[in-house]
Write a structure and sequence with these properties.
Layout lengths: L2 H28 L4 E14 L4 E2 L9 E9 L8 E3 L4 E3 L4 E4 L5 E15 L1 H13 L8 H17 L8
Helix pairs in contact: 1-2, 1-3
């Protein structure tokens, strides 16, 4: 195998690596476009104290809640009183905490939320990105480059019978 052929193989592998790199970058950049934003509202009843009450929809993908109202209901089920937003807080784990000394054992939490629904397109893009990425085809490119360089060295020094260096 001549040096020209080995050089062409090396160029082809480098070109393949660039195509894989650019393709993976494009998939990562535009993969989130295969999702749909969904909005909803919910009303939950829970015990709100210093240990907190976690919102039921917390496991939704990119869940972003906005509490619209919290009220403490009476024990007999009739409407209670509205709790001021300065008396509770919502943390990043979607747990509503009472920041006063009172305990609300029958509180109604009303909130709206948005989240993303991943469609089949997102799953396909994600799988393709993983298969091209470092755990897939792209992981073999350095090994292929090393093999080609090894053949180039052997081709230059080892296979040229009768050549004088």
């Amino acid at each position: 195998m001549g040096m020209e052929k080995l050089s062409a193989i090396a160029l082809a592998i480098v070109t393949l690596a660039l195509i894989i790199g650019v393709g993976t970058a494009v998939l990562v950049k535009f993969g989130s476009t295969a999702t749909t934003d969904v909005t909803g509202s919910n009303s939950e009843i829970g015990y709100i104290n210093q240990t907190g009450f976690r919102l039921n929809n917390f496991s939704l993908d990119t869940f972003v809640p906005t509490i619209t109202s919290v009220s403490n209901n009476s024990q007999n089920g009739s409407a209670g009183y509205l709790i001021s937003s300065g008396n509770y807080t919502l943390n990043s784990n979607f747990i509503v905490y009472n920041i006063t000394g009172a305990n609300w054992n029958n509180a109604t939490i009303n909130y709206t939320y948005t989240h993303k629904v991943r469609g089949d397109g997102y799953t396909t893009i994600s799988n393709l990105k993983d298969n091209l990425g470092t755990s897939g085809l792209a992981g073999w490119v350095p090994a292929l480059i090393a093999v080609v360089i090894g053949f180039m060295i052997l081709g230059y020094f080892g296979f040229a019978k009768g050549r004088k260096y």
